[in-house]
């Protein structure tokens, strides 16, 4: 009994976890998890390449809440947002004029848009 415990301890790391590659102790062979994951991802990719765009469109049309949930899950947890309040008056004025020019608006007397 003690011999079994000693053998088991030799195949564990300092945290008590089994060291990778000791299938003789009932663990999985080294690299087997990677092969399974690679095969799964290859098949998932092939399926998505064939059916993905249609599935996305169907979910967007039939279950918009799920569609938005997926989009939200892909976004980072924290997003740095800069506000226009961080701009100087001159910078804010310049950006307003750029936007007005892009929209083909002109400013008249007193800042009225024409």
From TrEMBL:
Residues 1-33 are annotated as: Disordered. Residues 1-15 have a biased composition (Basic and acidic residues). This is Uncharacterized protein. It comes from Xanthobacter dioxanivorans.
